Amino acid sequence: MNNLVIGAIASLAAGLATVIGALPILLPIKITKRVQGIMLGFGGGVMLAATSFSLIIPGIEAAIDQGYSKAIAALIMVGGIMLGGVFLQLAHRFLPHEHFFMGKENSQGSNLARVWLFILAITIHNFPEGLAVGVNFGNNNISDGIPVALGIGLQNIPEGLVVALSLVAEKYSRGYALWISLLTGLVEPIGGLIGIGVVSIANFILPWAMGFAAGAMLFVISDEIIPESHRQGFEKEGTIGLMFGFMLMMFLDTALG
Length: 257
What we know:
257 residues, mainly alpha
């Protein structure tokens, strides 16, 4: 099977893990805010490790393989990370959207229905994750892509549950919460296909694409995941979750990559 097809399937599978994570809302169980903080921290740790070991380090190595010196390779990654961060900042600034946990941002005066605000929030939040999977598979190296897809999928399970729980707490129906979780999953393959396509067509872009994805991921981790995991006085729990997520993703990337 073509590596690009495998990459597309992998990014879709990673994205649909959000629906799996949301399924417990159908059960008569209560998940405390403390546990939600740990789960969010865990997801942030997975993303942070994926950014470091699956994007930045391979991106530097890819630039060196293309003939650049170590210094130039590092500068390329710096530039890519800056572009990714600026892209997410502009998206947050100009697109009306609604955070799942913190409420609306830049949506005053908008006539958009709340469902579209949620969809825009999903796009802003999860596009970098799909892009990270795509650029790794776009290099025609399955051993690089599988750990990233697996790690992002693991991260999406607790994230999907926390998002669904937040929606139910806001008096949305369980069916609506599952629907939003499904949309969360369907956004990531779009980013994955873009990453695969760009890198496959122009392989010299690979280091820049990895840097861009890393910058976008870092923005999401710092701007939303970590602050949300620390809300309501559960900073230590969120930090513990982050450390375990980081260690797990580091292990997966080292063992499988």
